[in-house]
């Protein structure tokens, strides 16, 4: 195309040069002819040479170009000398001479102009055909490229000629720019929510933190993690979960706009201050933070926004969020560290009730380091068999006969000594190590009870705690029956303790498996009753046999009349529902006597015994001899009243 334009320009320039040259030659010839004619016809005047005045530079240039250099000014008019006799000269008017020459050349000039015009038309027609042949493939290529975008309802015309090609190229430039913007967004953002991805979010806040440091101001980062999102995926499927994430992203965008926290390069750009890190984790960056209270205000708005119902089709879903806040430069000085500290604060919010926010503090960092340290150590402990079981007896309140033992795991750390379950069990559940650890606990508890059972403890059970994580990841019935078969322990010698909160959203499958286990002889107990806020209608239909009252009620009932009444109501309700009652946390004689008056039959706590190793328990249960155990199927374990 460029070659065609260049060739046309050169041809036109050459043609115009030749045309102008011919016109000039024609004019000179005409003027020479008229000059001779004037001399022949004596059409001149004779004047004294002294009367002539030299021409100005411009007039001199005109006469010289027209080959009449002997021009002078006479009576304010330009004249040309055509002859000379002594002091007299013959002159004639230059204007009349020029006018006459133009008249003489009119016909030749018209012929020349006609020839030129014809040449131009022929040349234009030639180049038009040539250009058309040259651009035809280009037009087809442009139309093909535009059609490949598969656009609908567009107003562009086919590139059939130069104008059409120009219009199509403009249109192609427009849609190419639009696709470039979309491609940029596609490569920069999360595919589901269309928020900026982790990599580009970190790149963005790295630049902004540099500006913040130079200005000596502060910035904030909010780490947002959804509460209960996994249950949405488990209950409704991942498509529902994806829709929830899309709606969460849109609600967060609205907060960014409402709070004037937006950062965009232009109208089509992504929102760089808001990102989805992955899963159900989102982050929000606040560039200019004059007061930490502003970040708290934003966090509260987010919590309120996400607590509103999510409507998906005909279903209403409720979730909440936990938010961690980190402040630059107080909490951290780099983007990665800032996100990590906000994550730590978010984790604290999770552990302190969920649906709340927490601001990072150095104390949280120490806990995080402790968490990861114990997590690594626990993995090694599972391979090194550094865990062991202790057993705490639950006795009959009337004759102190042993009803069952609760198996409790302990960790014998090679450097720190014994680490209690309150510290490592939450870490095991959070990391799913509880699955491997739980298998070992169940197998070891059943193995030990099978040994005591074979020794004569026919009426005593072993109780094992089951974690909510195990209930979600295992088929309960298959897991329990496999462990019983491995150890040879009868099903009626096993009891499972499940916390009350596990039953709130329990599936029908879990209920069916619990019923199958009960029909085999396994007993089911609700652990820590009173702390999970179960409704009475749920309690009435639970497949359980034993209700274990949380130690809080036993502890407070001694000096708080309201707790006394609640404890009395729980015991009365359990008895009417034909559930066996066990009171936990008995540490004082007064508690023992109170429970006796309330009709509680079984008790557990430090007043009876702390959790003990198996060898200690073996010595204790055989204290009264084999014959006593063979006759009763159990042994006695009196409270240590004198020690309290």
List strands and helices in order, with pairings.
Blueprint: H1 2-40, E1 45-48, E2 53-54, H2 57-65, E3 71-74, E4 77-85, E5 88-93, H3 94-104, H4 106-148, H5 162-188, H6 198-215, E6 219-227, H7 229-236, H8 238-258, E7 274-278, E8 281-286, H9 292-307, E9 310-312, E10 315-317, E11 320-328, H10 335-351, E12 357-359, H11 362-384, E13 387-396, E14 402-413, E15 417-419, H12 421-431, H13 433-454, E16 461-466, H14 468-473, H15 476-487, E17 494-499, H16 508-520, E18 523-529, H17 536-541, E19 546-549, H18 551-557, H19 561-576, E20 580-583, H20 589-598, E21 602-603, H21 614-621, H22 626-632
Parallel strand pairs: 11-12, 14-16, 16-17, 17-18, 18-19, 19-20, 20-21
Antiparallel strand pairs: 1-5, 2-3, 3-4, 4-5, 6-8, 6-11, 7-8, 9-10, 13-14, 13-21, 14-15
Concise account of the structure shown:
This protein is of the alpha/beta class and 644 residues long.
Description:
- The structure is a single chain.
- By secondary structure, this protein is α/β, with parallel strands linked by helices.
- The protein folds into four domains: 2-104, no CATH class; 115-185; 189-360, 2-Layer Sandwich (Alpha-Beta Plaits); 385-643, EAL domain (TIM Barrel).
- Helix content is 54%, strand content 18%.
- The chain contains 22 helices and 21 strands.
- It has an eight-stranded mixed beta barrel, surrounded by five helices.
- Helix 20 (589-598) links the parallel strand 20 and strand 21.
- Helix 1 packs antiparallel against helix 4 (106-148) and helix 8 packs across helix 9.
- The protein is rod-shaped, with a radius of gyration of 51 Å.
- It starts with a helix and ends in a 12-residue tail after the last helix.
């Amino acid at each position: 195309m460029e070659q065609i334009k260049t060739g046309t320009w050169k041809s036109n320039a050459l043609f115009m040069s030749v045309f102008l040259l011919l016109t000039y030659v024609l004019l000179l010839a005409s003027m020479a002819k008229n000059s001779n004619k004037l001399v022949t016809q004596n059409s001149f005047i004779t004047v004294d040479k002294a009367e002539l005045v030299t021409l100005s530079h411009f007039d001199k240039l005109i006469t010289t170009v027209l080959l009449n250099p002997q021009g002078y000014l006479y009576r304010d008019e330009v004249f040309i000398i055509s002859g000379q006799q002594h002091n007299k000269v013959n002159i004639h008017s230059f204007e009349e001479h020029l006018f006459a020459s133009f008249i003489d050349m009119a016909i030749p000039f018209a012929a020349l102009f006609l020839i030129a015009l014809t040449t131009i038309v022929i040349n234009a027609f030639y180049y038009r055909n040539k250009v058309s042949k040259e651009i035809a493939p280009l037009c087809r290529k442009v139309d093909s490229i535009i059609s490949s975008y598969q656009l609908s309802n567009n107003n562009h015309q086919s590139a059939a000629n130069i104008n059409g090609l120009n219009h199509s190229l403009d249109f192609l430039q427009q849609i190419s720019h639009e696709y470039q913007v979309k491609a940029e967004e596609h490569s920069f953002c999360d595919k589901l929510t269309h928020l900026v991805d982790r990599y580009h979010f970190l790149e963005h806040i790295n630049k902004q933190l540099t500006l913040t440091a130079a200005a000596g101001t502060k910035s904030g980062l909010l780490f947002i993690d959804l509460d209960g999102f996994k249950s949405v995926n488990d209950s409704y499927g991942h498509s529902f979960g994806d829709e929830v994430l899309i709606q969460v992203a849109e609600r967060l965008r609205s907060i960014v706009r409402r709070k004037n926290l937006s950062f965009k390069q232009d109208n089509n750009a992504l929102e760089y201050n808001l990102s989805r890190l992955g899963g159900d984790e989102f982050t929000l960056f606040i560039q200019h933070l004059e007061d930490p209270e502003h970040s708290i205000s934003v966090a509260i708005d987010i919590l309120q926004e996400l607590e509103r119902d999510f409507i998906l089709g005909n279903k209403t879903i409720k979730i909440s969020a936990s938010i961690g806040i980190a402040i630059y430069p107080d909490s951290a000085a780099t983007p990665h560290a800032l996100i990590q500290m906000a994550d730590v604060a978010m984790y604290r919010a999770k552990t302190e009730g969920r649906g709340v926010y927490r601001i990072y503090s150095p104390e949280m960092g120490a806990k995080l380091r402790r968490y990861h340290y114990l997590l690594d150590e626990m993995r090694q402990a599972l391979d090194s068999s550094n865990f062991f079981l202790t057993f705490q007896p639950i006795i009959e309140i009337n004759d102190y006969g042993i009803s069952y033992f609760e198996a409790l795991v302990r960790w014998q750390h090679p450097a720190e000594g014994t680490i209690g379950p309150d510290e490592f069990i939450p870490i095991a559940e959070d990391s799913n190590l509880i699955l491997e650890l739980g298998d070992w606990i169940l197998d070891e508890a059943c193995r030990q009870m099978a040994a005591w059972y074979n020794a004569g403890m026919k009426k005593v059970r072993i109780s094992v705690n089951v974690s909510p994580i195990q209930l979600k990841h295992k088929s309960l019935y298959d897991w329990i029956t496999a462990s019983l078969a491995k150890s040879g322990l009868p099903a009626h010698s096993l009891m499972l303790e499940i916390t009350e909160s596990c039953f709130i959203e329990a599936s029908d499958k879990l209920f069916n498996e619990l019923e199958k286990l009960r029909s085999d002889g396994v007993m089911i107990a609700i652990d820590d009753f009173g702390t999970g806020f179960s409704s009475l209608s749920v309690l009435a239909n639970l497949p359980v046999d034993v209700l274990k009252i949380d130690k809080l009620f036993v502890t407070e009932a001694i000096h708080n009349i309201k707790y006394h009444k609640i404890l009395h109501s729980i015991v009365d309700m359990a008895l009417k529902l034909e559930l066996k009652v066990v009171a936990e946390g008995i540490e004082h004689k007064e508690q023992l006597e109170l429970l006796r008056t309330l009709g509680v039959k079984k008790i557990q706590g430090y007043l009876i015994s702390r959790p003990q190793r198996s060898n200690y328990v073996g010595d204790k249960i055989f204290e009264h001899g084999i014959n006593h155990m063979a006759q009763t199927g159990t042994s006695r374990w009196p409270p240590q009243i004198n020690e309290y």
